[in-house]
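Re: beginner question about structure tokens

> Can someone show what the tokenized structure looks like for a real chain? I only ever see the sequence side.

Sure, here's an example I had lying around. Input first:
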Amino acid sequence: MNYYRLPFPYIYYTISVVTIFFIIFIILVAILSLWGVSNLIAVLGGSPPIHTSMATSYEILKKTGLKPDDTIIDLGSGTGNIIICAVRYFHSKAIGYEISPYPYLISKIRSIFLGSSIRLHFASIYEARISDASVIYLYLLPKMLLSVFPKIKKEAKPGTKVITRGFPLPSWQPIKRITVGREKTKIFIYQVK
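And the corresponding structure tokens:
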């Protein structure tokens, strides 16, 4: 009786492929877990993650008059489209605050090539230092806007432009309202007095 013996390199190769697939599987599970935890943190924190496309980000910043000498702070910066767009197309300085790990990591990776004009903080919007801002951008639900409103009134310097997407700030009269994007999103622009 003849038995065919597998050569050692073939067995080694088989183990290597299985090991590689196992490692890939573990990485995917880790990414999905991080994404799930991030969404849970965002929802429990009061504002679920809502994406703003680069095209809409560009249109918002263009129509609100962002200038190269501006410093924009995005409270709840997500994957970073607003701050990346501000640096890349308007040559402004940009600072983002994000508490959910997955969008924070995505924005951190995306911003690597933008140099020192962009800073990201893995922190709550309530920990943000907004006194340096000439523009503050918010895309938050009304409950979150209501809770961050006193911080903006107290810490933002006079003349600071505040831009909210989708929802107006409570008891504050906008200086301008615009509509942007294919989805016809309302943008409210305020100025700190």
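Each token stands for a local structural state, so reading them left to right follows the chain. Residues 54-191 form a domain with the Rossmann fold fold (CATH 3.40.50.150).
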